[in-house]
Amino acid sequence: MLSDVALAAAMLLIILFRPQGITGGHELELPRDKKPISGLEASTKNTGISHV
Fold first, then answer.
1. How far is CA 8 from CA 1, 11, 15, 27, in A?
2. Closest CA relative to residue 22, chosen from 30, 11, 33, 31
3. How far apart (Å, rounded) are the C-alpha atoms in residues 43 and 34?
4. Each residue's pLDDT tens digit, 3-50
5. pLDDT at residue number 2
6. What end-to-end distance do the CA atoms of the chain give, in Å?
7. pTM: predicted TM-score of the whole model, two decimal places
8. How far apart are CA 17 and CA 13, in angstroms?
9. Residue 19: DSSP 8-state
């Protein structure tokens, strides 16, 4: 319970002193490949499993 109060207080302080948030309004992005995973597509096509 005390940890919940501490977390709420920390979040309140961030909102009060940094209204733009921790990252300054910039979202964190994970590096991703834009290509689909061909092995996954091939395995679902060859098994005859329907995803309905």
1. 11, 5, 11, 22
2. 11
3. 20
4. 999 999 999 998 888 878 777 777 777 777 666 655 555 555 555 565
5. 93
6. 44
7. 0.41
8. 6
9. T
